[in-house]
Write a structure and sequence with these properties.
Largest sheet of chain B: 5 strands, mixed
Largest sheet of chain A: 2 strands, antiparallel
Number of strands of chain A: 2
Strand content of chain A: under 5%
Distance between the termini of chain B: 44 Å
Structural class of chain B: mainly beta
Shape of chain A: globular
Structural class of chain A: mainly alpha
Strand content of chain B: 25-35%
Order of helices and strands of chain A: HHHHEEHH
Distance between the termini of chain A: 57 Å
Number of strands of chain B: 29
Helix content of chain B: under 10%
Oligomer: heterodimer
Radius of gyration of chain A: 16 Å
Strand order of the largest sheet of chain A: 1-2
Shape of chain B: globular
Largest interface: A-B, 26 and 26 residues
């Protein structure tokens, strides 16, 4: 029983540390200055206009390259997501460094109800759609 | 035992109905007004129109679960709640208006005309006349709103597929295009014949320009002129953080009402209206700094409102049911903001502006509030959690005001009891 508790405690501690890691803190700052105006503080977006991030199957999915491309290059097509359509334009962020993109993706993939793997700088570097 | 269950069931139903009547379907209204939930969860109800017999029609942004996008609602037993509901058509859109037995409805590209019979049922659900076709729709501001004048002309909003006509839309540092090429085919109101079929751009005329996006519009029969509500531009702080902070962006620019005559220009994208300086200010994409004025030849607003509230419905009230102050005044359905974040949002209510002889005659006020479902005084911070978003307005033959909601899919009926 004591052993089980220790494992449980260690696991909790691990997740707590992970959630507060520097990259996520930096990612939050980028989210607040670049993303929050449209995607909103709760990550819920705006119905029919700005796609939600919280609960988005695209965002927590495994296609990291697609996410990186959208952050760098923006998105101007109507997007179908989880049964709804969103039609506003997403601003491109060509000036964000690979590290910034990894941080903000790690933040949004692990905020609100989202739980997904963090994104590494190497994963972002591997995506070639830079100007 | 079974009887008891039945009695309890009906008691609960009656109680629920009473509560609905007592709490005015959750709305907060001026003294003497009552509201019923005329319909609920019918789909994304954008604009609505009502026949002389009181049958309500709603245009849905997307087809509902039954695959229908124009919904007919009739209150046969006259209890203020629609009890006969059906629909037709499978294309999304916003605009709908009725004149006599003619029902006009829009997709994002076209304007269609349906015929109603003497019971106000649609005669040709599968074969409407195409009145206008091929209008520009590029996702952003794609919906087409319509109204009619007294001479069988239809006025169509063609929204600009852009925020501020930048070379690259919604991109920091991207310059505004000069002149803005979008204005040739969008960013204004176009006038077409309401009876000729298969009209394209060349058959109509650009009636007024310099309007970023209009969703609410109505013909004022006192002034015999068109009035529109413009959605002001977004994101001054996102793209020009050195000129505008979050708090300034939340209040800039004003949402504006214009009275339009042929050839008018409301100034978008070159200027926006600042509600504090009460001036047309040069947009930063065109060299503005938040103070430089511009738009010498552009209209001044007839009325202006707080920023970003998204006016989606406009209706001049011509009924006799409401108290005298409402006669000929303007009701505006504010869909509610998103671009005030990180500050709390505004709107999500129906406002009223008194008019006399076709001119504003007093300050605007909130008429119906509480659509968001939040407690009184609580501001919206999570847009997706909002219960209802006011979108369309229509006047019933008895003078009641109907408000549609495209979030939950409700229609509210607001009446006044002397």
């Amino acid at each position: 029983m004591a052993k089980q508790l220790t494992i449980l405690f260690s696991t909790l501690l691990f997740f707590t540390i992970s959630a507060n890691a520097q990259d996520v803190v930096k990612g939050k700052k980028i989210y607040e200055t670049r993303c929050l105006a449209c995607h909103q503080a709760d990550g819920g977006g705006v119905p029919n206009m700005n796609a939600p991030l919280d609960g988005s199957s695209n965002l927590v999915g495994n296609n990291i390259a697609r996410l990186v491309k959208i952050i760098r290059g923006g998105y101007s097509e109507k997007i179908a997501l989880d049964g709804y359509y969103y039609n506003n334009v997403m601003t491109a962020n060509p000036d964000l460094k690979d590290e910034d993109i990894a941080n903000v993706l790690s933040y949004v993939r692990n905020s609100w109800s989202n739980k997904a793997s963090k994104v590494t700088v190497a994963q972002v570097q591997a995506v070639k759609n830079k100007k | 035992m079974k009887n008891l269950k039945t009695i309890i069931f009906f008691a609960v139903v009656i109680l629920a109905l009473n509560l609905n009547a007592q709490n005015n379907a959750g709305l907060k209204l001026p003294e003497g007004f009552k509201a019923t939930l005329f319909a609920d969860t019918i789909g994304s109800a954008r604009h609505i129109a009502i026949t002389k017999s009181g049958v309500v029609f709603a245009k849905l942004m997307y087809p509902n679960k039954a695959g229908k996008s124009i919904i007919r609602l009739e209150d046969v037993n006259k209890d203020g709640i629609a009890d006969k509901i059906n629909g037709w058509a499978n294309y999304g859109g916003t605009g709908i208006i009725i004149k006599g037995k003619d029902l006009y409805a829009t997709s994002d590209n076209d304007v269609y005309l349906y015929q109603l019979n003497d019971k106000d049922e649609v005669v040709n659900p599968l074969s409407p006349k195409t009145i206008v076709k091929g209008l520009i729709a590029k996702n952003q501001h794609a919906s087409k709103s319509i109204t009619l004048d007294g001479d069988n002309n239809v006025y169509v909003n063609i929204g600009a597929y852009s925020n501020a006509c930048q070379e690259k839309d919604r991109t920091p540092g991207s310059k505004g295009m000069m002149p803005c090429p979008i204005l040739d085919s969008a960013g204004g109101i176009w006038k077409f014949s309401g009876t000729k079929e298969n009209q394209v751009y060349g058959d109509g005329k650009r009636y007024a320009t310099g309007l970023r996006n209009v969703v609410g519009l109505d013909w004022n029969t006192q002034s015999n002129s068109l009035f529109v509500m413009q959605h002001g531009r977004d994101q001054l702080n996102s793209f020009y953080p050195t000129l505008y902070n979050d708090a300034q962006n939340a209040e800039l620019p004003a949402e504006t009402m214009y009275e339009l005559h042929e050839g008018d220009n409301a100034g978008w994208p070159y200027v926006y209206f600042d509600p504090y300086q009460k001036k047309k200010i040069l947009a930063p994409e065109y060299g503005g700094d938040g103070k430089k004025e511009g738009g010498e030849n552009a209209l001044n607003p007839t009325v202006f409102f707080p920023a970003h509230m998204a006016p989606n419905g406009l209706l001049f009230y011509t009924g006799d049911q409401f108290p005298a102050k409402y006669k000929n005044g303007a009701f505006i359905a504010f869909h509610g903001s998103w671009n005030r974040a990180p500050l709390p949002q505004e709107g999500y209510f129906v406002a009223f502006v008194p008019f006399k002889d076709g001119k504003p005659n007093g300050e605007w006020e909130i008429f119906a509030n509480g659509f968001s479902g939040l407690a009184e005084g609580e501001k919206v911070t999570n847009v997706r959690k909002v219960k209802s978003r006011p979108c369309g307005l229509a006047q019933g033959p008895d003078g009641s005001l109907y408000v549609s909601d495209d979030a939950r899919g409700s229609i509210f009926k607001i009446s006044y009891a002397k």
